[in-house]
Write a structure and sequence with these properties.
The protein has six helices and six strands, in the order αββαααααββββ. By secondary structure, it is an alpha+beta fold.
């Protein structure tokens, strides 16, 4: 049995399981403004507090949806990992995202965290592909900021 096949057997058992919640993380105006600079998206709803307060239902500036999405790597670092060490791991790669939905805006100063559930696990040649449904929750918010299926692959030696 290859390392990928052995890992698949271990990881397949986690399919459908809840990984849990990560730590809360505050989205600041400095982060929002820096993201606006990086992406050249300077729409007033992100960078002009007074105008956003006066002209939108948000009560002030909000984070870009793509900023919240880009925070998944950081937010997932504090979500518990309940799998044992796997033999022969060469690397893990971000394979993509499926079904990303921006549900609610994240206002500046709000805290968010990730909640993760293992959606599926598949053996793909010398790798194991895992799809994890991640819900980014907003502290004290009635609805999440976003929900996305994150596709990753763990590559094994032969």
């Amino acid at each position: 049995m290859s390392n990928a096949e052995a890992a698949y057997a271990v990881l397949k058992a986690t399919e459908g399981s809840e990984r849990g919640h990560g730590d809360w993380f505050e989205i600041t105006q400095d982060q929002i403004s820096a993201f606006a600079d990086c992406t050249w998206d300077h729409q007033f709803i992100h960078i002009d507090e007074e105008r956003a307060k006066a002209e939108t239902p948000f009560g002030g500036t909000i984070a870009h949806g793509f900023l919240t999405l880009s925070m998944l790597t950081h937010l997932m670092q504090s979500v518990p990992v309940n799998t044992p060490r796997l033999d022969g791991v060469v690397m893990g790669i971000n394979y993509g995202l499926d079904r990303v939905r921006f549900i609610s805006p994240v206002s500046r100063g709000k805290r968010v965290r990730a909640h993760a559930v293992v959606k599926s696990v598949e053996l793909k040649a010398a790798s194991v592909q895992t799809v994890t449904t991640i819900t980014v929750e907003i502290e004290d918010g009635p609805r999440p900021a976003l929900v996305a299926d994150w596709v990753t692959r763990t590559v094994f030696d032969s």
